[in-house]
TrEMBL record:
This is D-alanine--D-alanine ligase. GO terms for cellular component: cytoplasm. The gene is ddl. PANTHER family: D-ALANINE--D-ALANINE LIGASE (PTHR23132), D-ALANINE--D-ALANINE LIGASE B (PTHR23132:SF23). Residues 122-324 form the ATP-grasp domain.
């Protein structure tokens, strides 16, 4: 008998549009000979099953069940593709833990920590071979904090919402006169903001996932953007960014990055597929940590799919591995 999988998408943030696009791709690639798939859309007002005929069926939050053709449907597991809150920040994971449902992504604690860029940096900064840029984490948008940024950090730097994703609310600041506008933009998205000094280097993104207790590190993708940094438009608009998979690295760099990525995955106690973004500093070749995404995008332009295909695996096979692994945890 086929197992029933809830494909969870939507969300409470601006990333919901990306989540819905990711779900549309995942929905077509999951092995239907193995699994029956039900797309569940989560919004602030309602959680509902989106039936093929367009008829919504509200989710019973007591046990995360739905009614289909008058019959109760419960699930064997959850494929979580909900970017941002509540799917990537631990809230949804905590709920699934309470109702006893396995899911494909990190647990509640890891999800909550990794959603906070500043806290994540504090945990990974002692990993051998990994560097973190000088930074400030702010909890209030005030003239005093604006002055702290100017006094304590060296231009240029990136200003970003500390708990956001998809580079929404992010700015590159080149002069003191741009600081307040960048802080206002970031604080409009989050009540915590991270400011990081600029690292001159080539940008990469690398996927990792676990199968049978072994961390599989995928080939890294090199990001060559026509924009100044890999922002929302660059990530999700075809043609704005050149994505080279595998990225242009020496064998020594490939091996070094692979080992660091494996350590990051284990140190943060990750589960399912995650993606780490990093710089290779131009002058030194050092690996500088940018951030980790615990629910990476699965749209047509996403990086994980490119990396999976680069090792000769189909996306369908990859999803099957991710789904099967959640029942072993």
């Amino acid at each position: 008998m086929k197992k029933k999988i809830a494909l969870v998408t939507g969300g409470f943030t601006g990333e919901s549009v990306v989540s819905l696009k990711s779900a549309a791709v995942v929905e077509t690639q999951i092995d239907r000979e193995r699994y029956d798939v039900y797309k569940i859309i989560i919004e602030k007002e309602n959680w509902f099953y989106a039936a093929e005929d367009g008829t919504p069926s509200l989710v019973d939050l007591n046990d995360f069940s739905i009614q289909v053709d008058g019959k109760k449907v419960t699930f064997d597991g959850v494929f979580n593709i909900l970017h941002g809150s509540p799917g990537e920040d631990g809230k949804l994971a905590g709920y699934f833990d309470m109702v006893g449902l396995p899911y494909t992504t990190c647990d509640a604690l890891t999800s909550a920590i990794t959603m906070n860029k500043g806290y994540t940096k504090a945990i990974v900064q002692d990993i051998e071979g990994l560097e973190v840029a000088n930074s400030l984490q702010l909890f209030k948008n005030s003239p005093k904090n604006t002055q702290r940024v100017i006094d304590e950090l060296t231009l240029p730097y990136f200003v970003k919402p500390n708990n956001g994703g998809s580079s929404i609310g992010m700015s590159k600041v080149k002069s003191e006169g741009e600081v307040q506008e960048a802080l206002d933009k970031a604080f409009a998205e989050d009540n915590q903001v991270l400011i990081e000094e600029f690292v001159s280097g080539r940008e990469f993104s690398i996927g990792m996932y676990m199968v049978n207790g072994e961390v599989i590190v995928l080939p890294a993708t090199e990001i060559v953007s026509s924009k100044e940094f890999f922002d929302f438009e660059a990530k999700y608009t075809a043609g704005v960014t050149e994505e080279i998979t595998p990225g242009r690295m020496s064998e020594e760099e490939v091996n070094r990055v692979r080992e660091v990525a494996r350590k990051v995955y284990l140190k943060l106690n990750c589960k399912g597929a995650v993606r780490m973004d990093y710089f290779l500093e131009k002058e030194t070749g050092k690996i500088f940590f940018i951030e980790i995404n615990t629910v990476p995008g699965q749209t047509e332009t996403s990086l994980i799919s490119q990396q999976v295909r680069a090792i000769g695996k189909t996306v369908k096979e990859f999803y099957t591995e991710i789904i099967e692994e959640m029942w072993k945890q």
